[in-house]
């Protein structure tokens, strides 16, 4: 009976659920705990993706599930964000702000990373009275029309034209391009680590100069930490490892501990433009949903109390010790956001399939289809890292290619 049931489920999935690729894994997950996803047939797969950055603290964290249950018993949605005083929002905002530099003292909660990007664009234009947005090429900021406008991949954008105007592209980590930030610029939006470009880091000095340039031109600086936030790179947010403070901090994915939640964090004086310069300048019906905020608060507490961030540097080093010596296989990244360069799309696709056959879930990057994404939940154990690296080393043997 089970094969017939599985075939029926697969058929329903293909006929009723929209897919975004023609090679979806079609993995039916029935439960998830720690670093593992379990299928209907009882097979366990080690998650090397963390739901593309959502499940930083792992799956099935008891305190998060308890917080979701408790809040759902109290109340769900009551009114649009910012109208009613809801304790989960306030508590999460207070905790986040206590962990950030002083100027970042206000939160606007939203639903997704893309929505957070759109809100940042609106706030930047509203606060400065300017229209130009400067963004780095090969960056990924989301898929709404506003976020899509920040994508430099012309071929991908062609089907969605016209996009929002006044977008200027500069190269990431190229100081010479900073002179393109001018008195016409409202906002510079950049990742601290370019994830979908294959995990590219900038020179620490670059951030100081970018901050100085934005100050000189009196424009705003927003950092997109939607993938790099919540401990992924060895600090709560990646920018905290460098000597600068952004005007806006954009976070999402892992912020909700598995629930849909994002936040635009900046100075409260800046956020007031949404209510004073143009009343209802940005509104969101479900942003800051109390159940999502309760989950986010419990997840952040777990992240801090379990000292997960303190272990990231050691775990990164284990990956490097076991993978760095592979011939012609560059390992890039920081913390538990790593990219192993395999040199070709064919090699990468073969590696992903072989890892899947070994019950390890892996993927590539949007703008770097030759590199293997290594981004497991932060609670991955050292012995699990060694097991993963054993699989990867076997796959990368010359005889396999």
- CATH-level-2 architecture of the largest domain: 3-Layer(aba) Sandwich
Most strands sheet: 7 strands, mixed
SS element count, helices: 13
CATH superfamily of the largest domain: Type I PLP-dependent aspartate aminotransferase-like (Major domain)
Span between N and C termini?
A: 39 Å
Beta fraction? 15-25%
Q: At the third CATH level, what is the topology name of the largest domain? A: Aspartate Aminotransferase, domain 2
Helical residue percent band = 25-40%
Q: Indicate the mean pLDDT.
A: 93
General description of the model:
The protein has 401 residues and is of the alpha/beta class. It has two domains: 2-56 and 308-400, Aspartate Aminotransferase, domain 1; 62-305, Type I PLP-dependent aspartate aminotransferase-like (Major domain) (Aspartate Aminotransferase, domain 2), CATH 3.40.640. Helix content is 35%, strand content 18%. It has 13 helices and 17 strands. The protein has helices spanning 2-16, 50-53, 62-74, 87-98, 113-128, 145-148, 154-157, 204-216, 268-271, 290-305, 312-323, 345-357, 382-395, and strands at residues 29-33, 36-39, 44-47, 106-110, 132-136, 167-170, 185-191, 193-194, 200-201, 220-224, 248-251, 262-266, 331-334, 337-341, 360-361, 363-365, 368-374. The strands form four sheets. Strands 4-12-11-10-7-5-6 form a seven-stranded mixed beta sheet, with helices on both faces. A four-stranded mixed beta sheet has the order 1-2-3-15. A four-stranded antiparallel beta sheet has the order 13-14-17-16. Strand 2 (36-39) and strand 3 form a beta hairpin.
